[in-house]
């Protein structure tokens, strides 16, 4: 923007702030502009879902209509290419990353509100910079954040926020149990406030993955289809689906196509505990105009979020190379091998989270059968072939294979009993945990070996007594 244009906007914002009033819902206590400003600044420094929820009931009202009209005209002129003039709507990049809004777009007035909020919280100069960026640039930055279930902050680090670099642009962030030290980019809208009421420790001691991303463009003009005639004779138009081709790019040269689910599997196999992503959302810095958000899309949990106790399931920096190596091995598997290995991995992880010994044994049985039996094997002596394949695959020498043959026959027998009876005898329950732990370790070893080889063995070449070449 030209210098005189910046000066014009700066003057208008200063005048708007002078004539600003904070209006509120009837059930919310009124506050002054200064208090509103202090609250905005607090939200930029700390994780405050309680305050964010309260602030959502306030709206900014410029009492001078002339100044308000001039500011709206200013926005309409400089962003005319991105505004649907018939409906006076604009679609911000926040919608493109699934962070609020509706298919129809957002009213241009919301951009004015965002501009005023930036001017209040970070000074008018920052608001000028943000608006100039919006006009002159076509892409912006945001963070993709994934909340993990499984990994927890190590006991010695529960009072501080710790970052562990995975690669450039992707990192673990281990969250403390001190609310005041939680980062402000944790989702703090209505969803988070709701979850906090039922799960006060939703983020406490959890681990998140933070991915630096890029979105383009910053705004798109909403598109609407042809008018349709309603039953009462009135006409209405609906937004066109897939009319907003926002492009998302991960800012990582090492993992530009980073797959969170595969990475969670690599964490599980490396660290020997279950890990899965349960919540994901995008965060745009609140001092960016394109971070404006409305009602509509919100992050949704993929499962219930329990308040997990402090455990030793922490991820250390020394484990990162092994996690990355397994991730790369998983990612490069061919389609058939990947699909075939998915069942053992899923069932092994499920055996770690299942509540009963019977369920764990059934999960492990399914995992082992997917690993060591083919369709043709079900027409033969299944127990023998199952044990033979497993022993040959994991065995180091003849003696070791013979020992493994016995162990896998036992695994098969246990699995058969619980499948047919649905329960364990009292005698079996006494030794079930040791058996399950051993079976889980063997299952993990089997998966890791296939990942190391990059393929399943050719069972037709099995010869128990020979050494592998």
Care to describe what's here?
About 5% of the residues have low confidence. Helix 11 packs across helix 13. The protein is elongated and about 90 Å long. Strands 6, 7, 8, 9, 13 and 14 form a six-stranded antiparallel sheet that branches. Strands 3, 4, 5 and 10 form a four-stranded antiparallel sheet that branches. The protein has 14 helices and 14 strands. It has about 475 residues and is α+β, with helices and mostly antiparallel strands. A hairpin with a 2-residue loop joins strand 7 and strand 8.
Question: What's the arrangement of secondary structure elements?
Answer:
Layout: H1 3-18, E1 20-24, H2 33-45, H3 49-55, E2 58-62, H4 65-78, E3 83-84, E4 89-92, H5 93-96, E5 106-107, H6 109-136, E6 140-152, E7 162-167, E8 170-174, H7 190-198, E9 206-216, E10 219-220, E11 228-229, E12 235-236, E13 247-250, H8 260-271, E14 276-283, H9 320-331, H10 335-353, H11 357-372, H12 382-394, H13 398-421, H14 426-453
Antiparallel strand pairs: 1-2, 3-4, 4-5, 4-10, 6-9, 6-14, 7-8, 8-9, 9-13, 11-12
Quick structural overview:
This protein has 469 residues and is an alpha+beta fold. It is built from 14 helices and 14 strands.
């Amino acid at each position: 923007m030209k210098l005189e244009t910046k000066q014009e906007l700066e003057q208008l914002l200063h005048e708007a702030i002078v004539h600003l009033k904070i209006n509120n819902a009837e059930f919310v206590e009124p506050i002054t502009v200064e208090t509103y400003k202090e609250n905005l600044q607090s939200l930029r420094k700390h994780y405050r879902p309680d305050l964010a929820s309260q602030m959502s009931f306030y709206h900014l009202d410029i009492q001078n209509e002339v100044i308000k009209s001039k500011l709206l005209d200013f926005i309409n002129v400089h962003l005319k290419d991105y505004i649907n003039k018939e409906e006076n709507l604009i679609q911000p990049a926040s919608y493109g990353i699934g962070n609020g809004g509706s298919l129809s777009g957002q009213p241009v007035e919301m951009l004015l509100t965002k501009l005023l909020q930036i001017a209040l919280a970070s000074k008018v100069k920052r608001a000028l910079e943000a608006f100039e960026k919006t006009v002159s640039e076509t892409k912006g930055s945001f963070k993709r954040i994934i909340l993990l279930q499984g990994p927890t902050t190590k006991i010695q680090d529960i009072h501080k926020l710790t970052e562990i670099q995975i690669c450039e642009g992707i990192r673990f962030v281990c969250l403390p149990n001190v609310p005041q030290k939680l980062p402000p980019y944790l989702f703090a809208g209505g969803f988070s406030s709701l979850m906090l009421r039922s799960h006060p420790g939703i983020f406490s001691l959890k681990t998140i993955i933070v991915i630096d991303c890029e979105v383009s463009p910053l705004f798109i003009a909403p598109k609407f289809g042809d008018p349709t005639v309603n039953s009462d004779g009135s006409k209405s138009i609906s937004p066109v689906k897939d009319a907003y081709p926002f492009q998302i790019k991960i800012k990582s040269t090492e993992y530009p196509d980073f797959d969170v689910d595969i990475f969670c599997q690599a964490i599980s196999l490396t660290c020997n505990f279950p890990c899965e992503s349960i919540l994901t959302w995008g965060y745009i810095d609140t001092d960016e105009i394109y971070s404006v958000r409305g009602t509509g899309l919100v992050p949704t949990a993929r499962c219930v979020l329990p308040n997990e106790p402090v455990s030793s399931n922490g991820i250390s920096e020394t484990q990162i190379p092994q996690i990355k190596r397994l991730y790369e091995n998983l990612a490069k598997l061919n389609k058939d091998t990947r699909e075939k290995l998915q069942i053992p991995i899923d069932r092994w992880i499920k055996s770690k989270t299942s509540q009963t010994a019977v369920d764990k044994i059934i999960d492990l049985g399914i995992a082992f059968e997917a690993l060591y039996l083919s369709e043709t094997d079900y027409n033969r002596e299944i127990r023998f072939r199952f044990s033979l394949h497993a022993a040959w695959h994991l065995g180091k020498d003849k003696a070791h294979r013979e020992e493994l043959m016995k162990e896998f026959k036992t695994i098969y027998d246990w699995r058969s009993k619980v499948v047919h009876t649905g329960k364990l005898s009292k005698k079996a329950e006494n030794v079930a945990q040791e058996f399950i732990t051993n079976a889980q370790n063997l299952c993990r070893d089997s998966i890791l070996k296939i990942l190391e080889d990059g393929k399943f063995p050719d069972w037709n070449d099995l010869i128990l007594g020979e050494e592998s070449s």
